[in-house]
Amino acid sequence: MDKLRRVLSGQEENEELGLTSQVLDASTLSYSTRVKWFIICFVSGILCSILGTALLFLPKGTQLFAVFYTLGNLAALSSTCFLMGPLKQLKRMFEPTRLLATCVMLLCFILTLCSVFWWHKKGLAIVFCILQFLAMTWYSISYIPFARDAVLKCFTSCLN
Length: 160
Prior knowledge:
With 160 residues, the protein is mainly α. It is built from nine helices and no strands. The protein has helices at 2-9, 19-24, 31-55, 61-79, 81-84, 86-93, 99-117, 122-141, 147-159.
């Protein structure tokens, strides 16, 4: 009951929990703190992706692009951990409706970095970055009711 009163009155909790334990249990962080860290993480992810795209035209730019673009997507994906907590995030990521998109997205993260650093195939890295984008988009719209159906109907009507 005291916790409810503190939350409703807007007082920050100053318990003696470490940052790691607070992050692992998102409910111990105040709502405003969770939203702030979500915004920080999400914006830094977008900035990393934009920076990676800008670095694409430099020498060795494909490697920098792949690293920064992948880090940006990982930061944007992990930003939602602050809103719902990492365990709940992982459970929702691997629900049957998102399982394929999650697996493709994580596989593309790995394959992007492999294609740049081990296989030295720049074109393949860019293809995997495009697949990352598409998988992240498909994963993200799975949280919006009926959005996937609308996208599929739109594409099928455009192709017919």
